[in-house]
């Protein structure tokens, strides 16, 4: 975490800058009313700051982890209510009450994480929403324990006493909590877990091939959200001095969710701006027009979404980014990788098999994609896998990387039976891969896209990143969304190299590359094999390229290996000639 | 049929196209070459309406379509086939193809409209009832072309039709495009399989850093030593 804090570079990075602005706004919004002696505005901003800290962790949950929860209001409420029940009704005092409240919040938050392991998107939204709907009714129904609809008055002496300047301890605690939430979110994004969480949200499939278990990261996200929301719930009690079921209706959960969306999904400052607008406009500015409050609220929300389709902060950042865009997008070149004098030459690979597939069968409904494939890839070799469209090449790669389990057959990686391994366990065995459509994450910088590869490396300090160190600065400032298609492919190849995986599965890596890039790519393949000792299984339609770089080639047609051998030996095989001339059934 | 005059476009303040002028006659195939990042795909997307030009005109059959929405441009008879297999994954192959003609309304004779495309790609005919997501990557690319074919556009813009297609199928696909052009369609292709694509193109244009550097017939370009070396990548510098 300390390293991550140093990395966010508070002055330059957008996340760090937004967190700083947020902290300044939070402090100002509480300190100024206190100094001005306005109890009304002090109270309003204390409440809204607590809501901001809940929205900050909801932002992390929604945009970093991709988890839709409409139930955070219940987590907030259970923390607050437990303080009231244990602290006041059962006379245990605030401290014991707070400890119990925290435990209750974490328990409920993790209960939300359980369905998240099975269901996603709107389904998860409905599950959490039902908790938010039921929660206030439970408070009323269990009135023997909760004092029902009358609520519980809570006084916490000490926290709310004003000092000579008008400051209270609780005001200080609220400032610290909200600032800490913002700082935490900025720092978390720069950590390994933070990057991996965003990858798992954007493409669970690609995440697993990078050794990430998406379920664990969802659990982590719900835990962080529960802790942040729980603490805010505890502090809510002394700020308001009263808890009642009315305060924790489903509207509160929706409020937290909308704060993130209105402010700008994924923007550090978004939840603060969103919560301020949604809370202050109806509750403070339109307080005198209480009859029209809901109408005003609706109009404000509608106008904001029309003017700022990506949320207030999101749309502003988008405009800023376009305005400040560099003259050109950096080009991802392979040149200085290839010119790197690698000193640690790997020992010559012995003739062991890195990948052995036997009797692989896989059907999709009636269609047999693989009809009993045997394939053996020697360690330290480049092995080409060619064949017509729809012959099962990608299906075989998916099976070897654990994304599509075989119906029958055995897959061994370096002698280990990995047939039933999930994709992230195969990644741990040292299998890395790229996809036909490159999985590039546009919300991260180009450098961060490489870092996700490095995060999967056992040493966390892979050769590739050291070699590219001089590009770190410019690639950290550019996003990959403007990269041409072929450059995205190169970036994905670089990422899998950064993972230091000894076995690489490449799915049509040269598609769309220019002739010059193809030449560089061929050099890169040989470099990886000869200098870094990697084993490469390459699926590619550019047969000239495959014949130039591969040590061995397997030809797949209609789910069966129809030819196999070194390039010059099988070149005259009729099944291979057919591939070049087009008489093979496609 | 299609005429671009002094076309400028970019992303935010990043200029990508710097004054492109190009005319394509009915039935003509123009091949666009150049290194990755030269702005080739951006040019197609700008003409297709997905990027608003900052300056210049795009004349389609005598009307300026610069700044129009993509769906309006499509209705006027321009079709854009992007790279990366853009088809509707949960619809069947049959429905995906029919959608190509949907905007014209009325009933269509499927066999007549799609016949030549299905003859070109027998794999699609075999899998008419399958969902598009069950096709391999290369077959999805074929489907995207077939869908564009039934739309019978006046102008077809094609970004790397060979992407993900088996080597043996590339010449027949390009030949298919040539026959398609003979029916009067103007075709612009961006393609990295340069040698094969030059064989069917009437003209080729070389783009670099957002501008047209050179234009000529396939024969002329092959003869130019500099072009030969740098752009066609025929010199072996490995």
Write a brief structural summary.
The complex is a heterodimer of chains A (586) and B (238). By secondary structure, chain A is an alpha/beta fold. Chain A is built from 26 helices and twelve strands.
Describe this structure in words.
The complex is a heterodimer of chains A (586) and B (238). Chain A is of the alpha/beta class. Chain A contains 26 helices and twelve strands. In chain A, the strands form three sheets. In chain A, strands 8-9-10-5-11-12 form a six-stranded mixed sheet, with helices on both faces. Chain A has a four-stranded antiparallel sheet with strand order 4-3-6-7, with helices on one face. In chain A, a hairpin with a 2-residue loop joins β6 (408-413) and β7 (416-417). In chain A, α3 packs antiparallel against α13. The radius of gyration of chain A is 29 Å and the shape is elongated. The chains are: A alpha/beta (586), B alpha/beta (238). Chain A binds chain B through residues 321-329, 331, 364-365, 367, 387-391, 393-394, 436-437, 482, 484-487, 508, 511-519, 522-523, 541-543, 578-584, 586, and chain B through 11-14, 35-37, 41, 83-85, 122-123, 130, 134-139, 142, 160, 163-169, 171-172, 192, 194, 232-234, 236-238.
């Amino acid at each position: 975490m300390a390293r991550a804090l140093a990395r966010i570079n508070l002055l330059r990075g957008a996340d760090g800058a937004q967190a700083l602005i947020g902290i300044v706004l939070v402090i100002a919004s509480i300190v100024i009313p206190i100094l001005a002696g306005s109890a009304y505005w002090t109270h309003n901003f204390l409440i809204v700051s607590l809501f901001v800290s809940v929205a900050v962790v909801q932002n992390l949950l929604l945009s970093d982890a991709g988890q839709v929860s409409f139930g955070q209001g219940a987590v907030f409420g259970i923390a607050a209510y437990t303080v009231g029940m244990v602290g006041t009704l059962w006379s245990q005092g605030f401290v014991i009450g707070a400890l119990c409240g925290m435990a209750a919040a974490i328990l409920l938050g993790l209960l939300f994480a359980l369905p998240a392991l099975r269901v996603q998107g709107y389904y998860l939204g409905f599950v959490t929403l039902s908790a938010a709907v039921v929660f206030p009714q439970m408070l009323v129904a269990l009135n023997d324990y909760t004092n029902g609809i009358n609520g519980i008055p809570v006084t916490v002496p000490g926290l709310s006493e004003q000092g000579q300047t008008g400051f209270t301890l609780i005001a200080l605690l609220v400032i610290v909590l909200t600032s800490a939430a913002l700082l935490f979110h900025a720092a978390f994004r720069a950590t390994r877990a933070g990057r991996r969480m965003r990858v798992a949200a954007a493409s669970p499939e690609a995440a697993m091939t990078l050794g990430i278990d998406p379920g664990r990261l969802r659990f982590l996200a719900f835990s962080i959200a529960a802790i942040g929301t729980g603490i805010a719930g505890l502090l809510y009690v002394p700020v308001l001095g009263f808890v009642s079921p009315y305060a924790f209706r489903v509207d509160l959960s929706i409020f937290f969710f909308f704060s993130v969306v209105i402010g700008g999904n994924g923007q550090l400052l978004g939840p603060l701006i969103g919560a301020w607008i949604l809370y202050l406009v109806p509750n403070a500015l339109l307080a005198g027009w209480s009859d029209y409050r809901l109408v005003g609220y609706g109009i404000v929300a509608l106008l904001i979404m029309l003017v700022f389709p990506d949320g207030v902060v999101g749309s502003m950042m988008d405009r800023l980014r376009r305005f400040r865009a560099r003259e050109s997008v950096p080009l991802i070149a392979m040149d200085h990788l290839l010119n790197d004098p690698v000193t640690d030459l790997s020992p010559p690979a012995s003739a062991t098999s890195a990948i052995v597939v036997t009797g692989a069968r896989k059907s999709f409904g009636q269609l047999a994609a693989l009809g009993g494939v045997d394939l053996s890839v020697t360690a330290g070799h480049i092995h080409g896998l060619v064949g017509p469209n729809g012959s099962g090449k990608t299906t075989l790669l998916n099976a070897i990387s654990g994304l599509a389990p075989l119906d029958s057959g055995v897959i061994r990686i370096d002698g280990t039976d990995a047939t039933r391994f999930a994709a992230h366990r195969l990644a741990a065995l040292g299998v890395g891969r790229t996809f036909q459509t490159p999985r590039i994450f546009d919300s991260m910088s180009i450098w961060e896209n490489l870092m996700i590869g490095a995060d999967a490396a056992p040493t966390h300090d892979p050769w590739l990143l050291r070699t590219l160190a001089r590009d770190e600065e410019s690639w950290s400032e550019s996003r990959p969304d403007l990269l041409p298609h072929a450059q995205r492919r190169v970036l994905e190849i670089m990422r899998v190299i950064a993972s230091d995986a000894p076995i690489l599965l490449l799915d049509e890596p040269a598609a769309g590359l220019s002739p010059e890039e193809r030449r560089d790519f061929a050099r890169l393949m040989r470099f990886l094999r000869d200098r870094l000792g990697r084993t490469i299984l390459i699926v590619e339609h550019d047969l000239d390229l495959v014949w130039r770089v591969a040590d061995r080639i397997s030809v797949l047609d209609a789910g069966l290996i129809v030819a196999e051998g070194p390039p010059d030996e099988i070149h005259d095989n009729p099944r291979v000639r057919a591939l070049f001339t087009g008489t093979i059934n496609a | 049929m299609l005429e671009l005059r002094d076309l400028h476009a970019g992303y935010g303040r990043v200029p990508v196209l710097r004054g492109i002028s190009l005319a394509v006659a009915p039935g003509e195939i123009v091949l666009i070459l150049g290194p990755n990042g030269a702005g080739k795909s951006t040019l197609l997307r700008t003409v297709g309406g997905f990027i608003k030009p900052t300056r210049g005109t795009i004349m389609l059959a005598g009307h300026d379509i610069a700044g129009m929405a993509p769906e309006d441009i499509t209705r006027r008879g321009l079709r854009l086939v992007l790279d990366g297999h853009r088809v509707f994954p949960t619809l069947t192959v049959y429905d995906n193809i029919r959608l190509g003609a949907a905007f014209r309304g009325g009933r269509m004779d499927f066999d007549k409209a799609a016949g030549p495309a299905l003859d070109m790609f027998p794999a699609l005919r075999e899998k008419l009832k399958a969902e598009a997501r069950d096709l391999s990557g290369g077959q999805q690319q074929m489907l995207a072309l077939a869908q564009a074919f039934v739309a019978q556009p006046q102008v077809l813009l094609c970004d790397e039709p060979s992407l993900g297609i088996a080597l043996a199928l590339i010449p027949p696909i390009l030949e298919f495009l040539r026959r398609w052009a003979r029916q009067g369609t103007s075709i612009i292709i961006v393609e990295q399989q340069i040698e094969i694509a030059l064989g069917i193109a009437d003209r080729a244009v070389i783009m670099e850093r957002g501008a047209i550097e050179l234009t000529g017939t396939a024969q002329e370009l092959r003869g130019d030593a500099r072009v030969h070396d740098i752009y066609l990548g025929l010199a072996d510098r490995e």
